[in-house]
Amino acid sequence: MKFISIIFGWLNDQLLKMNWLSELARKLVEDVFGLPINERLGGSIHFFLYDTVKIFILLSVLIFMISYIQSYFPPERTRKILGNIKGVKGNIIGALLGTITPFCSCSSIPIFIGFTSAGLPLGITFSFLISSPLVDLASFLLLMSFFGVKIAAAYVVVGLILAVIGGTIIGKLKLEKYVEGYVTEIENVDSEIIILTREERIAYSKDQVMEIVKKVWLYVLIGVGIGAAIHNWIPESIIQNTIGTDNPFSVLIATAVGIPMYADIFGTLPIAEALFGKGVGIGTVLSFMMAVTALSLPSLIMLSKVVKPKLLAVFVGIVATGIIIIGYLFNAFGFMFT
C-alpha cells in the first residue's frame, strides 16, 4: 500500500503538477535572468513561465484524449441517446454527456440548438448546457494538478449536481414556449452516423487540439498574467479584505466578477490558483471559476438569441443561485478538502 502511495504521489507531482517544470523555470529565472524567484519580478516571471508551459502541455494532451473519446459521441448519437430517456434519469445522462463535449459554453450552444430543434425535453438540454463548460475530464485533471484530487473530485460532483438540479427545475417549470420560434422550426434531418477508423479518430483529435489551442491561447496568457500579478504584486491584505474568508459577501462578489469575463477552465485556473495561494476560501475560488465558465457574458448573449428573456433569466437565476450555494458550502466545509 505504501509503495502504491509513493508511485501515485510521484505521478501526481511529476505528471500533473510538473514539479520538474517548476524547477526548470526556477533555474532559468535565477541562473539565466539573475532574478530571485522569492522577489516580485522573479516570482512573476517564474509563475508566468511555469503556468503557461504547464497549461499548454496539459491542454494539448487532454484535448487530444477528450476529442478521441468525443469522436465516439457525435451530436447525432448523443441526440439519439437522450431522445430515449425521460425524467431525472434523462437529466443525469444529459449532464454526463456534457462532460465529453466542447470546453466553453459558447461552443455548446450550437449543440444545444440542435437538441432543442430535435424535440428533446428542455430540461435535459439545459442539464447538458450547464455541465458542458463546467465539468469534463480535462477540468478534473487540471484541477488535480493545481488543487489536488479531493477538490477536483468535489468540483466535478457539485458541477454535475448543479447541472442535474438546474435542468430538472427548468423542465418542471414547462418553459418551452420561451424558446425562440425559429429554433423549433429548424428542419431536423436524421443523418447517418459515420463510423471513423482509428487513423481518422487520431486525425480528428489532432485537428481539435490545433483548433482549440488557437481559440484559447490568448485567454490562457491573459489568465496567467493576471494570476502572476495577483500572486506577486497585489498585497494579501487587499485580497483578504475584498474576497477573503472574513468577508461574508466574498462568494457573491466572486460570482458577480466572474460573469462578465470570458474564459474557459484553462484561462481561469491560473487566476484561481493565485487567489487560493493568497488565502481566499476554496468556495469563493470555485464560485469564481464556475461563474466564468458557465455564465460568461458572451455565452449569455448567444443564448439570448435562442431563448426569450424570461427563460434566460430563469437559467441565469438558477445557475447563479446554485453557484453561490456551492461557494458558501465549500467555504464552510473546505477543511475537509484541503
From TrEMBL:
Transmembrane parts of this sequence: 47-69, 90-113, 119-144, 151-170, 216-234, 246-263, 275-300, 312-337
Keywords from the named record: Cell membrane, Membrane, Transmembrane, Transmembrane helix
One of the record's GO cellular component terms: plasma membrane
Pfam families the UniProt entry points to: ArsP_1
Membrane topology label: Multi-pass membrane protein
Cellular compartment(s): Cell membrane
InterPro entries per UniProt: DUF318, UPF0718_permease
Family classification: Belongs to the UPF0718 family.
The name this protein goes by in its record: Putative permease
Source organism per UniProt: Clostridium vincentii
